[in-house]
Amino acid sequence: MSVRRNVTSWTPTAVVALALLATSCAGQDGDAPSPKAGSSASATPHGYVEGAQEAAEQQSRLLLNDPATGDTRVLDLVTGKVHEVSRTAGTSGLTTDGRFGFLHTEGGTRVLDGGAWTVDHGDHVHYYRAAIRDVGRLPAGARVRSDAAVTAVTGEDGRAATYPRAGLEDGELGGPRTLPGTYAGVVVPYAEHLLALTGDPGGSTKVVVHDREGKRVASPDAECEDPRGDAVTRRGVVFGCEDGALLISENDGRFEAEKIPYGAEVPTGERALSFQYRAGSDTLTAPAGDRAVWVLDVTERTWARVETGPVVTANTAGEGSPLLVLQDDGALHGYDITTGKKVSGTERLLTDVPGTRAEGTPGPAIEVDRSRAYVNDPAGSRVYEIDYNDDLRVARTFALGMKPALMVETGR
Amino acid sequence: MTAPKRTVLRLRRLLLTVITLVFAATATACTSGDDRPRVVVTTNILGDITQEIVGDEAEVTVLMKPNADPHSFGLSAVQAAELERADLVVFNGLGLEENVLRHVDAARESGVAAFEVGKAVDPLTFRLGGDGGPEKEAGQPDPHFWTDPHRVREAAGLIADQVVEHVTGVDEKAVRDNAARYDGQLAGLTTWMEKSFDRIPEDRRALVTNHHVFGYLAERFGFRVIGAVIPSGTTLASPSSSDLRSLTEAMRDAGVRTVFADSSQPTRLAEVLRTELGGQVRVVELYSESLTEKGKGAGTYLQMMRANTDAMAEGLTGN
C-alpha cells in the first residue's frame, strides 16, 4: 500500500476533522462565534455585553411611559438626554428589577432593557451602560421579580416560572422553567432560592422555599394572612400580611421566618398594601390608608406610623434621610422618621393632584436612589430631581414633551 | 496549495489525534500544533513583567485583556484548559483575581506549578477605610503590590527563579540575562520616581483618591493616601455641599488642590470643586489595575508607572 493512496482515501474524513479542529481552536482568537451570544470565548471581561461600556459611576436612568399616547422614553440621568423607544399604549403599570422595565398591558407584558445596570462584587461594584433594547414579551398580568441569576414571573392565576437572567441580558427571554403548583403572592428570588406563599390568596397562606431548579427545600413554618406587597432587603424578604410583616431571612442555607407585628389594632383599610423603598434599603414605606404613612424599619423590626394628612405616595432612602411624602397640595414633604415631625417641603410640584395611588400604577410616583429622589408630574410633562439631603432642593427639572404617567428608575 | 503533500500528511496526523481522543476535549487538539513551553499569567501587569523575563524562551499567555478589571475578568473554557496545560502559572493572588482563582487551584491540583507573586513580596495589609483602603477589607492583605517598583524588582527575580525551575526547555542563561536587564530598568524606574517625587514638598505628598491601589506606592515614597467618595454623575449635575463633603474635607485635610480619581466628567468635577473651595482644582486620572493597549499610555508596566509618577508629581507641584 502506497502512502499516497492511503492518504487520499482518508482525506474526506480528515477535512471534517480539520473543520472540527479549526472550530475548537478559533475561540482563542476571540473572533469566532461563541456558545453564548454576546460574549466572546476569549478573555472578555466578566459582565461583558456587546456594545456595553463600563462606567466610573452609577448609570441611573428613568423609564417613562404615557398610557394614553403610548409614548415611551428613557431619560439618562447622567447625560440628561432623552431616548425615544417604540410605543406601548394602554399601559396599566410599569415595574422594574433595576435593569429591565416591564410595561404591563392587557395583551401582555413588554420587557425593555433600559441599558444601565450594576454588578455587585461584594467589596466593589461595576457600572455598565449599553444600548436600550426590547427583549420580548411575557404574558399579561406577569408580576416579575429578579435576582442576579433568575427572573421569576408569577401570573394572575398564581402559576409561576423562572427565566435565566443571562438570557434577558443577551436580549432573549429564552424558555421558562415552570414551578410546580400555584402561589398566593409573588415568587421572589432570594439567596439562591425562590420564596413564595401557598394557600388562599385572600386568606391564610404558608411560606414555601424552592431551590432555583424548582425543588422544594426545608421551609420555615410561618403563615401570612391575606398577603399584599413584598420587598427584598439586606435583612431578608418582607411579605406584607394582615397583622404585620413577615420577614424571611437566610442563615447558612437555612431559612427563618419572623413576624414583625403592627403592635396595635390597625383599622380596616389602613394596613400596608405595597412597599415603596430605595433598592437595597432596610427602611420600607407604605401608605397607611390615605392620611398617614407606615415606615417599617426591618433592621429594628419596628413599624412607625407617621401622621401626614392626605397622601399621594411616599418613599424614603432610609439611613437617617427624611420620609418623603407627596401630598394633596401637590408638594413633596420631608418628615423626620424618628419624631414624625415635618422638617422640609417643596413648592407645589404636581400640576394635577390625584388620590392615593397604588405601586406601579399610573400617577405621580417617588423613586429614590442613594443621592437623589425623582418625582414625575404627568400633567406637567416633567420630572423633578430632588436632593433629599439638602432640604428637598429641586436639583434639576426635566421637561419631557410627553406625559410621564408611569416612571421607574433603573441602573442598579 | 503550495505544498499539498505536507498538508495532507499533517491532516493525517491530526486525524489520528482526534481518533485517539474520541473527540474528547476539543481544546486539547489545539496543543498538537505547538510544543513550546508555556507560561500562563493571569493579570496583564504581571504578564508584561513575565514576558520581559521569559523573552523568546517560552510562550507567555496573558489571560486578562488590556483595560480590564483584575477583580472581575473571567476565563473561557479554552483558557481554563490552557491553564491546566501550562508549565508554569504566574498569578497575583492575595484575593485579586476573584473569578480565576478556582481555575488556578484546579491547575495546581492537576500538578501545574503555580506561583502567587503577591504573597512572596512581603504584602501590606489594607488600612482603615478612611486611609484609602476599602472599609470591608481593613486588615486584609492588599494585593496591589505593583504600585511599589521595589517589590516588583523582587517579584521579577522570583519569577525568573520559577521559570528556570519549572519550565523545561528554557535556556537558563537567556532567562537570567533577561531578568538582569529588566532588573536594571526597574532599579532605574525606582530612582527616577524618587527624584520625581522629591519635587513635591513633604506636606503635599497626599493622594486624595477613590482608588484603593496606591497603598504600596504611598509606603515606598512617603505619601499619605486619603480616600474620598467621588460624586456620581447624577449628583454632579447639580451638587449640594453635602454631596461634595467627603471630597472637600479630604482635600482640606490633605492641603492639596488635586484629586486623583476616575470620573466620567472630570472637567465638571473640577468645576464644582472650584465653586465649593475657591481657587484652582485639578482632577487627574491615574492608571490603577490594568495596562492599556500598546501605545495608549500604559502599554507596559514601566510606561504605566512613569505616566502615574508624572501625573502625581505635576498634579501636586503645580498651583
How are the secondary structure elements laid out?
The complex is a heterodimer of chains A (412) and B (319).
Chain A: H1 3-26, E1 53-55, E2 61-65, E3 72-76, E4 82-85, E5 93-96, E6 100-105, E7 108-113, E8 116-120, E9 125-129, E10 133-138, E11 143-146, E12 150-154, E13 159-164, H2 165-169, E14 177-182, E15 188-190, E16 193-199, E17 204-211, E18 216-217, E19 223-225, E20 230-233, E21 236-241, E22 244-251, E23 254-261, E24 283-288, E25 292-297, E26 302-307, E27 311-316, E28 323-327, E29 331-335, E30 342-348, E31 366-368, E32 373-377, E33 382-387, E34 393-399, E35 406-410
Antiparallel strand pairs in A: 1-9, 2-3, 2-35, 3-4, 5-6, 6-7, 7-10, 8-9, 11-12, 12-13, 13-14, 15-16, 16-17, 17-18, 17-19, 20-21, 21-22, 22-23, 24-25, 25-26, 27-28, 28-29, 29-30, 31-32, 32-33, 33-34
Chain B: H1 4-21, E1 38-41, H2 44-54, E2 59-62, H3 77-84, E3 88-91, H4 101-109, E4 113-116, H5 117-120, H6 149-166, H7 172-198, E5 206-209, H8 215-221, E6 224-227, H9 233-237, H10 241-254, E7 258-260, H11 266-277, E8 282-284, H12 301-317
Parallel strand pairs in B: 1-2, 1-3, 3-4, 5-6, 5-7, 7-8
Q: What characteristics describe this protein?
A:
heterodimer; A: 412 residues; mainly beta; 35 strands; globular; disordered N terminus; B: 319 residues; alpha/beta; Rossmann fold; four-stranded parallel β-sheet; 12 helices
